[in-house]
């Protein structure tokens, strides 16, 4: 487990899940947010650390945009996104005066903020900390892994869409995990088919099965396929809790089962 106990570090966090993807737009932030909601639904206390510094989308997805981060003796107090205070969130989005402002920082400044997010946030006791990372593999990923390494268990979830091009990007993510000694908890295939809400037939909008094939080839677990789901997309646009409000929709079973495997 973590190093010295204290309110402003991760010593009280039981599991850390890094969510990675080879490129943007595959649903990495969506999976991070929904995984947090599904874990909360299963009675867990969850934190989300949004280190996607140039595209922080979690505050918008969880309707926490514009909320303020306060300081306490232990550091920054994360924002609670729900009334029950079971999901806390820290994001660079809370530190910008204008949500549309771009983070135009050089690497060292970004890396310093990532270190601060890890050491100076008063997370308290959490069952899971879900870390939404930028797409690809960059200095920011190295800074994140280095800062989190003393805290364990630390594992990565790699999100891909089914197409070969996305799967190729994921191969690089898996190489990154191997080189940095990061345990891969598994691959999630997102946007794998569209389930018609009228007849329940599944149309494979892209190709199918790429994520599972890749996981098999790489010898890592395959955690599940999440279909394209208009209700999921809509709930994120409206900042609604998909897991609580849409249990009958097509993406629900996959998201729920992934949460049970991590
Ligand atoms: P990334 O973090 O990889 O850049 P996002 O999570 O921001 O990608 O997702 C990109 C867009 O796709 C968002 O508008 C999101 O609502 C939508 N999306 C992601 N996954 C699904 C899904 N399974 N069903 C429907 N819409 C999805």
Automatic annotation (TrEMBL):
Keyword RNA-binding on this protein?
no
- Detail which positions bind ATP: 22-29
Q: Supply one GO CC term from the record.
A: axoneme
Q: Which GO terms describe its molecular function?
A: 4 iron, 4 sulfur cluster binding; ATP binding; ATP-dependent FeS chaperone activity; iron-sulfur cluster binding; metal ion binding
Note accompanying the cofactor annotation: Binds 4 [4Fe-4S] clusters per heterotetramer. Contains two stable clusters in the N-termini of NUBP1 and two labile, bridging clusters between subunits of the NUBP1-NUBP2 heterotetramer.
GO BP annotations, alphabetical order: iron-sulfur cluster assembly
- Where it mainly occurs, coarsely classed, is cytoplasm
Q: What are the subcellular locations of this protein?
A: Cytoplasm, Cytoskeleton, Cilium axoneme; Cytoplasm, Cytoskeleton, Microtubule organizing center, Centrosome, Centriole; Nucleus; Cytoplasm, Cytoskeleton, Microtubule organizing center, Centrosome
- Amino acids binding [4Fe-4S] cluster: 196, 199
Q: Which PROSITE patterns match?
A: MRP
Q: Which domain of life does the protein's organism represent? A: Eukaryota
Output the InterPro entries linked to this UniProt entry: Mrp-like_CS, Mrp/NBP35_ATP-bd, NUBP2/Cfd1_eukaryotes, P-loop_NTPase, YlxH/NBP35
Obligatory cofactor(s): [4Fe-4S] cluster
Q: Please name the Pfam families in this protein's record.
A: ParA
Extract the CDD domains matched here.
Mrp_NBP35
Alphabetized UniProt keyword annotations = 4Fe-4S, ATP-binding, Cytoplasm, Cytoskeleton, Iron, Iron-sulfur, Metal-binding, Nucleotide-binding, Nucleus
Quaternary structure and partners: Heterotetramer of 2 NUBP1 and 2 NUBP2 chains. Interacts with KIFC1. Interacts with NUBP1.
What family does the Swiss-Prot or TrEMBL record give for this protein?
Belongs to the Mrp/NBP35 ATP-binding proteins family. NUBP2/CFD1 subfamily.
- Cited function: Component of the cytosolic iron-sulfur (Fe/S) protein assembly (CIA) machinery. Required for maturation of extramitochondrial Fe-S proteins. The NUBP1-NUBP2 heterotetramer forms a Fe-S scaffold complex, mediating the de novo assembly of an Fe-S cluster and its transfer to target apoproteins. Negatively regulates cilium formation and structure.
- Please state what the protein is called: Cytosolic Fe-S cluster assembly factor NUBP2
Gene label: NUBP2
């Amino acid at each position: 487990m973590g190093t010295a106990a204290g309110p402003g570090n991760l010593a009280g966090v039981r599991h850390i899940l890094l969510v990675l993807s080879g490129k943007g737009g595959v649903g990495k932030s969506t999976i991070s947010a929904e995984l947090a909601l599904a874990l909360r639904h299963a009675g867990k206390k969850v934190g989300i650390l949004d280190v996607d510094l140039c595209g922080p989308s979690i505050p918008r997805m969880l309707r926490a945009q514009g909320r303020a981060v306060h300081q306490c003796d232990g550091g920054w107090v994360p924002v609670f996104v729900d009334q029950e205070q079971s999901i806390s969130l820290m994001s660079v989005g809370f530190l910008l005066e204008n949500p549309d402002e771009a983070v135009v920082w050089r690497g060292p400044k970004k890396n310093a903020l990532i270190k601060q997010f890890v050491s100076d946030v008063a997370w308290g006791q959490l069952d899971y900390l879900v870390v939404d990372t930028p797409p690809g593999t960059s200095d920011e990923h190295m800074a994140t892994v280095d800062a989190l390494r003393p805290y364990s268990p630390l594992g990565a979830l790699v999100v891909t869409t089914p197409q070969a091009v996305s799967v190729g990007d994921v191969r690089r993510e898996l190489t990154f995990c191997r080189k940095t000694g990061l345990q891969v908890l598994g691959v999630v295939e997102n946007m794998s088919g569209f389930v018609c809400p009228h007849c329940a037939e599944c149309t494979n909008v892209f190709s199918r099965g790429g994520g599972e094939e890749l996981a098999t080839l790489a010898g890592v677990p395959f955690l599940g396929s999440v279909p394209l789901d208009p209700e999921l997309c809509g709930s994120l646009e409206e900042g609604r809790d998909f897991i609580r409000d849409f249990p009958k929709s097509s993406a629900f079973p996959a998201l729920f089962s992934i949460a049970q495997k991590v």
